Amino acid sequence: MITGNWGFILNLLSMAALLGLASVAFQLLTAPLLIRAGKRVDPLEQKWLILSWALLPWAMTLLLLVQGGIALPDDHNTVYGSLRLIHWHHTDEFVISAWHSWFLSTVGLWLTLRMGRFAYQQWCVNQQLKLIREQALATSDSTICILPTRDVVAMAAGYFRADVYLSQGLLNQTTPDQQAIIIAHEQAHIRQFDNLSRWLLMLLICPLPGFVRPAILNRFTLVTEQLADRRVTRNAEAADIAETLVKIARLRHRINKPGQAAFVAAEQLRERVCELLTPSRPSALKLSLLPLAILITATAVLSATDALHHFFDIFLVH
User: Fold this and answer.
1) Pairwise CA distance, residues 253 & 239, whole Å
2) CB 146 within 8 A of CB 139
3) CA proximity to 304, closest of 21, 54, 77
């Protein structure tokens, strides 16, 4: 048994781990609804909805840790968490052989493995970007670089000071007007910090199972592409943008390299063209209701966590 301050810290961490598990269970249940709702919700609303959904477990556990850290035990040596929906008895006693201990160890190991894998994947991406930067040729515009390849590639690389990379193969097979649309599209990604928001989303959902992450990332990627297309319509006709998307998709299909970074993914082409030709409009009411929905969800998850705590206490050693 660990007592004193360390016992209190470990007990608080174990409760935070239980709250995180309850939040993840909620995410798994609502992920299909989140993806299907994309067909009826404006891209801007989708973007914030997905980010809020991904942030929920982390925000909830942080809230619990902050409130638990500043709370003082009452006369019965009990500490209450957020909204008093979570309470913890014997806060200064952490039993190593109890379920709190092995549960905390399991969650900690899983987070360590997932975060480690995420860090390794980001290192690999950075190495690839480093090679691309070394091969790229500078232009008169310092933010645009040319890749000496016949592949059809257009992308924005970087988080805060990003650059636009276009392949020579893309330039050889497109008109100046189409190139202007492509460049404006990639610059829209830079202005909207899409690379940074996508990196943040990947970090937030990296603890989730593998069957959930790709669908969420694909939906978020589609949303950011649609928002970048929408920004380009300020200076170009929607029909011209859609025509450029179709042409790039045909070029990629002919090259048959679906895994390469490119201006448009064929599987997202239909939805992007439909959004361009029949644009949806964000609803101020829906965006204003988002914080309320998150608050109600947070309250429900907190309530479920305390019930889980007592459920485990019934059948396992406290």
Assistant:
1) 21
2) yes
3) 21
DSSP codes, 102-159: HHHHHHHHHHHHHHHHHHHHHHHHHHHHHHHHHH-EE-SSTTEEEE--SS--EEEE-S
d(CA 23, CA 302): 9
Over residues 100-122, the pLDDT tens digits come to 777 788 888 999 999 999 999 99
Residue owning tokens 């709190």:
100
User: What is the pTM (predicted TM-score) of this model?
Assistant: 0.80
**Alpha-carbon separation of residue 83 from 88, 99, 114, 303 (angstroms):** 13, 25, 31, 9
| Strand locations in 209-314 (E) | none
Question: What 3-state DSSP class applies to 54?
Answer: helix
Residues sharing a CB contact under 8 Å with residue 19, sequence separation 6 or more, in sequence order: 57, 60, 61, 64, 86, 301, 302, 305
Neighbouring C-alpha atoms within 13 Å toward the C-beta of 59: 12
Alpha carbons 48 and 310: distance in angstroms, whole number: 34
